[in-house]
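@channel sequence for tomorrow's demo:
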Amino acid sequence: MSKDLFRKELEQLRPYVPGKPIEEVKREYGLSEIEKMASNENQLGPSPLALEYVKRALNEVNFYPESTAVELKRDLADYLGVGFDNIIVGNGAEELLSLIANTFINQGDEVVVASPSFGIYGITTSILGAKVVSVPFKVKEYDLDGMLNAINDKTKLVYLCNPNNPTGNIIKKKDMDYFFEKLPSHVVVILDEAYFEYAMSESEYPNGLDYLQKRPNTVVIRTFSKVYGLAGLRVGYLITSKEIADVMNKAKLTFNVNKLAQEAARGALRDKEHREKTLEMNAKSIEMMENFFDQMEFDYFKSYTNFIFVDVQKHSKIIFEGLMKQGVIVRPGYFWGWDNWIRVSTGTIQQTKKFTSTLYTFYL
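structure tokens (generated this afternoon):
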């Protein structure tokens, strides 16, 4: 088949590789129990109130969902204190990132990203012909000056993942303030706050909505996949200026979020108890892992998320495969060019104990 059939941008595109599915690992290694600590999911499970909302909507799945998620948008507007027209709901944050690219990117535009960070930024923009300018971390932080220096007249978008995936660290408020002060006016800033709820209690963590109020060409992305435990239903949302949202809605698919997902998100948003239990479980797991890493003298990033990025002092592929054979799935850092690092999601006390005790066996 001729290569001319396909978009030329796809030739050099490296697809995003998600974590291994549990059932695949069970079959491959003949295991009955697996602890998946690779994809930053909520190990507490979904919100019970979200499940109640889903049950109520089951008898209505013969009808198309509300195309603009009106009820969910109203709930979000009230919860966030923003305008109804400033919100767009999507089929997970990934669809919203694709929507952003489809809204802004023309052939020859440039986008600036940090490295390491979420790979979907580069995929969704480069497929449309953008040049992705990647700025490596400076020691263990965003090189914000490096990102500012990478901006030119062709730069359309700058992506900041805060807290960052896969490292888990944050851009502090004073540094974010500095970045926005220096940023050229023609650039659109994408603030990916998928892990917002884990970091919001940190006094130095900046709320992206504060920057949107001052700078209309800002887009803030959040999700129901993490704290809310709805990763399998795919619900995310963005907040931006009405001017940008109006244009984005032209590119949005009509029925992009299914009825059950919309209702689950409405229930989860109301379930304060589930959020608090999730954050409590997360804090305990983080503390257990940090104590273990300190004992092992492993270097790691201070995390404001539901995962930790840690230097295990051996090639991550070896650790990844070894842990998987013993029923623990993590994310190897060689995907991001950090060969000796792994990203491990938080879990219950039992899951965290299994991870640390299993990892310890590689150093006996």
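heads up for whoever presents: The first strand starts at residue 35 and ends at 36.
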